[in-house]
Amino acid sequence: MQRISISQKRKMQNPFIQFFKFFYLNIRILKIVAGGHGGTR
Amino acid sequence: MAKILVLGAGIAGHTAAAHLRRKLSKEHEILVVSPNRNYQWVPSNIWVGIGRMKPKEVIFPLEPLYKRKGIGYKQAKAVSFHPEGDSSETNPYILVEGVFGEKLGKQEKVTYDYLINATGPKLAFDLTEGLNPGTNKVYSVCTYDHADHASKALHQLINEIKKSDKKVKILIGTGHGKATCQGAAFEYILNVEKELQKFGVRDKAEITWISNEYELGDFGMDGMLMEYNGFNMKSKDMIEMIFEDRGIKWILGAAVNKVEDGLVHYENLDGEFKTETFDFGMLIPAFSGHGFQAYDKTGQNITEKLFKGFMIVDADYTSKPYEDWSVQDWPETYQNPSYKNIFAPGIAFAPPHSISKPRKSKNGTEIFPSPPRTGMPSGITAKLVADNIIDSIKLGKESMHHKGSLGNMGAACIASAGYGLTQGSGVSITTYPIVPDYKKYGETGGRDIKKTFGDIGLAGHWVKLSLHYAFLYKAKMKPFWWLIPE
C-alpha cells in the first residue's frame, strides 16, 4: 500500500535537500541530547 | 590513592573508565574487568547483520588502548560481590574468574574503593525455548558475531530465492513477552527489506514484524507523540505508515515462547496460542540480570541488598499501581543505597517499573516491552557516575551533584532504514524525556513536543553513519574525544 507519496519519497531521497537536512538534523539532535539532564525530585 | 573497579567494557563501562582516566591523576587506579576482549559499537551491528559492514569495522581490541591510556584491564567475568570483604580480606572485593589464556578458570579477588557495575544485560536466549541464535533458522544481531552469522544466513536465503521461484517468509521482532530493544529489530526489518529490494527478490519474500508491543511504535517507551512535518503524529501512526508503505505485515501483543525449525510459537493478549512459519528469523531475546550473588564479611548471602534481577540503585521500587507511577521513581545517581561506593549505570540498574503500560494475556502471561536503557542513556549515566566519583575523590567526601534521571533526559534513536550513500534511508526520532512526564507535559503524551520529533530520509542514514565514525573515534580516545557528547 502506498502510504508515502512519490513526491515525498523523492524529497526523502534527494541528496541536495537531504544535505541541508543532515546539518539541520544534527543541530536539532545535538540540542536535545547535549542540552543537559538532571534530577526530577 | 583510590582504586576504581569497572565491571564491563560496553558503552557504559568504557565511557566511565575513559572519563575517570582523563580526569583523575595517575596515582588513582582504574581497572576494567570484562569477559570481552573487544569494544563493539553495538548500534552498527545492524549493518553487520545485512553484510554491509564487516565485524572488524564495529570493534577494536581493548587491551592495547587501555595499556596506552594507563587503564588496567583483566579479561575475566565477575562471579560474586563482597562489598564488605571477608574474614581474610578487609577491603571490598569482587571475585572474578579468567576467561582466556593462562588465566582461564582461575579465580581471584579484585579489591576496590569504588565499584561501577556496568555489566549490562545477560542475553537470555534460554528464557525462550529454541531461540539460541543460529538454530531453528532464527538469528540475532545483539553482538557482532551473532550479526555476522545472521548476515551469512540472510544472503544464503537471498541466493536461493534468486535462483528459484521459491517464496519465503521472514520474521523479525522480539523473542520473548518481556523483551526490549524493539528499536534494533525495527532497524533490522527495514534494512532486510531494503536488501531484498536491492537484490531484486522483494516480491518473493513475505516480511512480518512480531512484537510484544501493544501498538506499533511503542519501543518500550509507551510510544510517543512527536512533531513530524509540522504536525503532531503518534509514533504508532508513523511506524504503521512506514510498514504499510514497505509491505511489511505485523503481529502485536505476542509473547514468543518457543521456536522450532522454521516455526515460532507465541501467545497473544487474547490468550490464544498461535504459530507462525518462517524461513529466516531474527528475534531479540529477553534481557536479564547475570544472577550474581553477594555476601557480607561473615559470608552471609546479601544478594537482596544489591540485586533485584539487575542492581538496586536510588530508585523508588515500592510496588504501586500503574496510575501512581511517576518520573520521580526513576534513579538520579545510580548509587546503591546499601553500599554507597557501588554504582550501576547503563542497563545494569534495576528499573523501578516498566515505561510501557504493563499488560497480561487472559492466561496471566505478562506481554509488554521492558524499558530500554541502551545506547545514549548508558553513556550519559556512566559519565555522571564517573563525575560523581571524581568529585568525591577530589573533595575527600561523598559528592552526588551530577544527576541524570531518565525522566529528565533526552534520547535520539537514529534508526537505519536501509544502507547506501545515495540510496540509504533513516528514521530519526528524538524523545524528551525518555520516561514520559505526564504531569509536566500532560497535553503532549508526557513528552516535550518541541524536543520530540521524527524525520524520514537519506539524511537520517548519513547521521547514523557519521555517528558510527564519531563514536568509534570517541571510544578509541583519540585527540579531543571528550568533546563528542554521549
TrEMBL record, chain B:
Organism, as annotated? Flavobacterium piscinae
> Could you name the domain of life of the organism this protein comes from?
Bacteria
InterPro entries, per database record: FAD/NAD-bd_sf (IPR036188), FAD/NAD-binding_dom (IPR023753), SQRD (IPR052541)
- The protein here is known as NAD(P)/FAD-dependent oxidoreductase
* Alphabetized GO MF terms: oxidoreductase activity
Ranges for the region named Disordered are: 354-373
Signal peptide limits? none
**Limits of the FAD/NAD(P)-binding domain:** 3-156
